[in-house]
């Protein structure tokens, strides 16, 4: 969504955020072939000397599947329990898939406070930097099990943007099951047009973005625009 497009390999440090709908199928669980393909791409980037950080959603979606919870909205404590179950499975899946390419994964679970409060921010940043230094790939998610309604990101788009600014990444990629911003939510408006490039985030652009379109997701296009603002502002 940025105006300038440079080849991926010309970047030094990339944060890749992966949405729940890409990783988890509501019925069958983890989409392991897709995960393996992403891990192969990550390995190729790392082989070129690029630092890669992953912000992975999917804990709640995985937990829902493992626990066989009914569809529909979950109460906060239900989604926290689902996240507790799902995060273990998610982290294991990343670790196993990356290990096929000889890469070690390190799990980082952050809360809003960890990215806002100076001492905790510095600690989290130091740990992430150390992981990168030893060649590991940080797999980051919000610590959904302890975050309460008032003090949480709730969506990984903005979390990924904060991680990108925190680690001085020079590229933030938000992978989703939609190819980008449309002039209106395309599942609601058949005339919606795809915008290949958004040179600046204006109030008109913000008005085009809708919320989450599936129960698997938290954010939607609105939080992706917010993430774009955080990242470009930094
Ligand atoms: N942290 C949530 C999870 O792992 C995802 C939030 C989001 O969908 O952006 O389930």
What would you say this structure looks like, in words?
The chain has 9 helices and 7 strands. The protein has a single domain, classed as Carbamate kinase. The protein has a 5-stranded parallel β-sheet, sandwiched between helices. Helix 7 runs parallel beside helix 9. Strand 2 and strand 3 form a beta hairpin. Helices cover 44% and strands 14% of the residues. The two termini are 16 Å apart. By secondary structure, it is of the alpha/beta class.
Mean pLDDT, as a whole number?
Answer: 92
Number of domains: 1
- Cα radius of gyration in angstroms: 17 Å
How much of the sequence lies in strands comes to: 5-15%
CATH class: Alpha Beta
Low-confidence stretches: none
Largest sheet: 5 strands, parallel
- CATH topology label: Carbamate kinase
The CATH homologous superfamily is named: Acetylglutamate kinase-like
End-to-end Cα distance, whole Å, is 16 Å
What general form does the structure show? globular
What ligand species are in this complex?
glutamic acid
Secondary structure: helix percent: 40-55%
Gross CATH architecture: 3-Layer(aba) Sandwich
Helix-strand pattern: EHEEHEHHEHHEHEHH
Strand order of the largest sheet: 5-6-4-1-7
Helix/strand/pairing class, anyone? alpha/beta
Q: How many E-type strands? A: 7
